[in-house]
Amino acid sequence: MSNLVPILPVTPTVPKGGVFALGNFDGVHLGHQAVVKTAVDKAHGMGVPARVLTLEPHPRSVFKPHIPPFRLTPPLAKIRLLRAFGVDEVIVQPFTPEFSQLAPPDFVERVLLDECGAQHVVAGFDFVFGHARAGNIQNLRTWLGPRGVGVTEVTPFRDAEGHVMSSSRTREALQQGDLKTARHILGRPFSIAGMVEHGARRGHDMSVPTANIALGEYLRPKFGVYAVHAGCVGGPLQRQGVANIGVRPTVDGKTELLEVHLFDFHEDIYGQEWEVELIDFLRPEQAFADMNALREQINHDIETAKARLAFAAYGR
Predict the structure, then answer these.
(1) What CA–CA distance (Å, rounded) separates 178 from 302?
(2) pLDDT of 186-242, one tens digit each?
(3) Which one of 91, 97, 149, 248 is least enclosed by Cβ atoms within 10 Å?
(4) Is the dihedral of CA 185, 188, 193, 198 positive or negative?
């Protein structure tokens, strides 16, 4: 079995003890947040650290390596969000084919008890673990209770219509360009973060310079044009702009990319880590007859994005 790896903060060994929130937490949506907040509250009451134990890479990508990208929050984005809820440490267990063979009782004994020294665990109602996903929340109670370790089950987090908040619903909404539903489930706008890379400077040549960010592991939202907020990772996302997500059929047609034009912004940000929030979907991606037609549409998109962002700000 692989050793547990502490990600934030980086320490030589994994400190033992505390309350552990368990799960994959892809998206860190409102349901996940309920699990984490419950763990933090429990830890404060017990006077011990609050920790998250999660798996990376996501098991789905290990068992099905050729499926399209599906992550709502790749590892670093997930960890940043989890720590924002007052977690003392996020511990990542490397998920390998070997680790996937670990029987549920062995996961409890070797990981939760021996390596983590868990004093209490918190998990969602649908949490499963161990080989073939055979372990469940009731097994945790059965195996941990006699060892003096409590288990808290967090019931389904539902909206006013009774829908369960889930990562799968979020992915479906984003692929349909339904940012309202995605934001409703996540409790925040969906965002993509990455390093700003050099491009072909076509936008610069049209007087609409863009910051290019590779999509990496992120789920591909509906290809098209979005009104966005952006900023350096970890800082306020105060810059407004318009972004295209897709393959840019007029000029490329192959490379999937996030291109964002920031309004009234002229700084050199190449090599910096930026985060882009998708605020409103403007239109699907489309091919244009020539660069003049593309330039005209971009100018129209800029004005539309400014109007949508102003309306969104007024709505707050």
Answers:
(1) 20
(2) 999 999 999 999 876 666 656 788 999 999 999 999 999 999 999 999 999 999 999
(3) 97
(4) positive
